[in-house]
Design a protein that fits this description.
The chain has ten helices and eight strands. Strands 1, 2, 3, 4, 5, 6, 7 and 8 form an eight-stranded mixed β-sheet that branches. The structure holds benzoic acid (BEZ).
């Protein structure tokens, strides 16, 4: 999806994501979403939009009940992989397209819009919600989960401290994430006209794969914005410093546990 920096310029990192690494090391992203799918509860014959579908695994699961689903993502490499894994000829109820969540302009309306673990990458939430509103039929529902207020706070603090210590304080401004509170996001939803039915913020401590390398791999995959323009040897040194700072808090029995906090919402576009 669209990653934007503090000065609102898209970064070049988005399409550099390694889709194979993403699928293998970070597969918990879609595995953890089963109850979010239950909140959407797609029905036979419904039309669903999966906003920020990544490599398409959840998009595919939504077709299990007979819904027709379009998965969209800003990342060309993610959509290439999704289309390769789930080709339209073999999965006619499933389609994929490269589209940015902040400039959604769908030419049809959907019964539901779904989004998992994506919208915290988009620093223009009003634009996202405007696009979602236009993409929904009256009575349609928007079900989403994103990082909420306080998400990965310890990790961000560790990275920022290490950047300060190693002489790159200006890189702290490259924080790419938007982690709203319940109040902030509900206000945006209501401002767009939605009725908010569910809004919860909860801790989800998340074990990272790859044992002692888990945190470093996570930083390389997701937090690379912070390290732009830093020579790779120095980046490695910074990763080690971050690990040292966070070990007592986030490392348990050989596994790094990321301090995720999820904001989950369900909102409805009223019929009139
Ligand atoms: C998240 O899912 O909360 C998340 C993933 C990667 C980077 C930051 C947050």
């Amino acid at each position: 999806m669209s990653i934007q920096t503090a000065n609102n310029k898209p970064t070049p990192f988005v399409n550099d994501w390694d889709v194979h690494l993403y699928d293998h090391r970070h597969r918990y992203v879609s595995h953890l979403a089963t109850d979010l799918l239950q909140l959407l509860d797609p029905q036979y014959g419904e039309h669903i939009l999966d906003l920020g579908c990544g490599t398409g695994h959840l998009t595919y699961r939504m077709t299990g009940c007979g819904a027709e689903v379009i998965g969209v993502d800003h990342s060309v490499s993610m959509i290439d992989q999704a289309s390769h894994l789930y080709p339209h000829q073999a999965y006619p109820q499933l389609k994929f397209a490269v589209i940015d969540a902040a400039s959604l302009a769908m030419n049809k309306q959907f019964d539901g819009v779904f989004s998992n673990a994506v919208l915290h990458w988009v620093k223009q939430p009003e634009k996202v919600l405007e696009g979602v509103w236009q993409a929904l039929k009256p009575g349609g529902r928007f079900v989403a989960e994103l990082g909420g207020k306080g998400n990965v706070e310890a990790i961000i603090q560790g990275i920022c401290e290490a950047l300060d210590e190693v002489g790159y304080p200006e890189n702290k401004a490259f924080n790419p994430w938007y982690f709203p509170s319940i109040g902030e996001y509900s206000t945006l939803l209501e401002g767009q006209g939605f009725q908010v039915k569910v809004a919860t913020l909860f801790d989800r401590p998340t074990p990272l794969d790859e044992g002692k390398n888990g945190l470093q791999n996570w930083m390389k995959m997701f937090a690379s914005c912070f390290f732009q323009n830093i020579p790779s040897e120095e980046q490695e040194y910074i990763f080690k410093r971050v690990e040292k700072k966070l070990r007592s808090n986030l490392y348990r029995n050989g596994t790094w546990i990321a301090d995720y906090k999820r904001l989950r919402i369900k909102a409805v576009k009223p019929r009139s």
